[in-house]
Amino acid sequence: MGLLDNKFAIITGAASARGLGKATAKLFAEHGATVAILDLDEAAAKAAAADIGERHVGLACNVTDKAACDAVAAELKAKWGRIDILVNNAGITQPLKIMDIAAANYDAVLDVNLRGTLYMSQAVIPAMREQKSGSIVNLSSVSAQRGGGIFGGPHYSAAKAGVLGLSKAMARELAPANVRVNAICPGFIATDITGGKLTPDMLTSIVEGIPMGRAGEASDVAGCALFLASDLSAYCTGTEVDVNGGSLI
Ligand code: NAD
């Protein structure tokens, strides 16, 4: 018996092979969920869904496009009859210093990380309200908490801090409908968002600053998402869970 048997889950930005979304999708599938993998590229989303098993679906969805979010949620609700879980995972970073952030940089980072979280949540909330159950898990970041992104830039820190505020406000508003909203704050996790941007020296110095002495794995975040998505966390809402190897101690 899986922790997510008979549950239907949507995960945004989950096509990236080494990403947190794909690892979460795989773990949810292993625990019995049927998963929709959303991402910018339809072929990549379909391939990622096929990779975790045949009952799963991959769909193109740009989370900054409200109409696209609404259309995908409507399609999945019609197919499944319900939507139990949403993981707002899609995100982008830009390694810029404060004076280098142009309006277009600010808009792009805020749009994907924060506006996308709102739009996709708005797309599934009516179904969750109707069912009187649901779990929304939002990906924030240690960058929101320590005000410094290794790669993200100040606008990324601002967007991810916004995700925390939005999560708590949604949690408060939706609690009477038994829809829970929680956030995960990953520390340094080795994925494409971090890979390729670091020299070996930078990597060594980052890991030296982590009390547990290692970078996180995508599976570390997936495990936390499984807890928050499942009934194991039935009385948790409005929380933020740090998955950072002790980086804030
Ligand atoms: P990743 O780059 O591997 O994956 C992000 C995915 O989002 C990609 O597949 C990309 O195509 C997709 N995406 C980008 N813009 C999109 C859009 N407009 N609509 C839909 N999909 C879009 O990144 P990751 O490391 O797996 O990060 C996942 C989440 O975790 C992000 O929100 C990120 O900010 C957050 N996070 C990551 C780390 C880390 O160290 N890796 C740390 C803290 C927080």
From TrEMBL:
GO molecular function, one term: oxidoreductase activity, acting on the CH-OH group of donors, NAD or NADP as acceptor
Single Gene Ontology BP annotation: fatty acid elongation
UniProt cross-references to InterPro entries, sorted A to Z: NAD(P)-bd_dom_sf, Sc_DH/Rdtase_CS, SDR_fam
Transmembrane segments: none
Family matches, as Gene3D superfamilies: NAD(P)-binding Rossmann-like Domain
Name of one Pfam family that matches: adh_short_C2
Protein family (similarity comment): Belongs to the short-chain dehydrogenases/reductases (SDR) family.
Entry-linked NCBIfam families: PRK07231.1
Name by which UniProt lists this protein: NAD(P)-dependent dehydrogenase, short-chain alcohol dehydrogenase family
